[in-house]
Amino acid sequence: MKLFNYSTLYARLDKSTRTLHITLNRSDRNNTINNEMLFELESLLAWTTSKVEIQSILFDSSTNHFSWGLDPQKLPEMSASQLEKFSLKLHKIMYAMMQMPQTIVMDLKDGAANWAMEFALAADIRLCSVNADLRFDHTRFGLSPASGGASFLTHFVSPAFAKNWLALGTTIPHSQLSASGFISQSYDSTNREDVIQTVLKNISAQAPVQRIQTKLAVFEALRPQIEASLVQDLKIAKASRISEDWKNIKADYQEDFMPAKSMAYSVKLSLIKNDENQRPELDH
């Protein structure tokens, strides 16, 4: 049964497993995440939160890849303020998803990157193809993870894995995805539907109250550490935006990033400007 009439999402209900299927539906833009998609996600998930009879949510996409996250063609047009608002909105949605009564499953299919990988951290169960291209490649575009890509990740997988993935920004080896627990199960081209249906049926077979309480218990155990480290995420991401390197992504995706040695001067100049803007007027 199809629900709502969204531009970037396709939503339907499967009564057999009591699953809400949410499909990212921007195939012409590689299912990249934009403000409209975040608005529609927030609206749909707010509706779903009160529907405790829905036992699971399955996220997938309208293409072979889940989502390439940011849109390189639109990124240079965004201001630092717009990026900050976007990151905060994405984090707000993710944080809410972690506390929803439904068990959330994400099928990352053949690939996901940067913002889409951060979004995937809000899932309880993550699936992907055995050949999936998954990467936290924010720095390739002059950005730092700002919606939990560092703070959430280091609590869900070993810090050793997290540091490697974030430092390299390249495709994560499949062996590491499985060993780290980031991916619960993988599939090939012949058994994708079987794997997904088995997961959804196992969720629907659980006692609803105990399933919800167990998810909440896991979240509450991690809440203090996640909230504390997220503050650092936001501070570091804000500092990294001073360079405005994301605006230097060219049409052919060649970059002209700020040299590291220029960062100290830029930070100092930013602090002076902020001080001047916030300095109270003196009485004469």
In short:
The protein is of the alpha/beta class and about 280 residues long.
Structure description:
By secondary structure, this protein is an alpha/beta fold. It has a single domain (2-213), classed as 2-enoyl-CoA Hydratase, Chain A, domain 1. Helix content is 43%, strand content 14%. The protein contains nine helices and nine strands. The protein has helices at residues 35-49, 80-97, 114-120, 153-156, 159-168, 174-180, 192-204, 208-240, 263-278, and strands at 2-3, 9-14, 19-24, 56-61, 103-107, 111-113, 125-129, 133-135, 185-187. The strands form two sheets. Strands 1-2-3-4-5-7-9 form a seven-stranded mixed β-sheet, sandwiched between helices. It has a two-stranded parallel ribbon with strand order 6-8. Helix 1 links the parallel strand 3 (19-24) and strand 4 (56-61). Helix 1 (35-49) packs parallel to helix 2. The longest helix is centred in the C-terminal third of the chain and has 33 residues, at 208-240. The radius of gyration is 20 Å and the shape is globular. The termini are far apart. Residues 271-284 have low confidence and may be disordered.
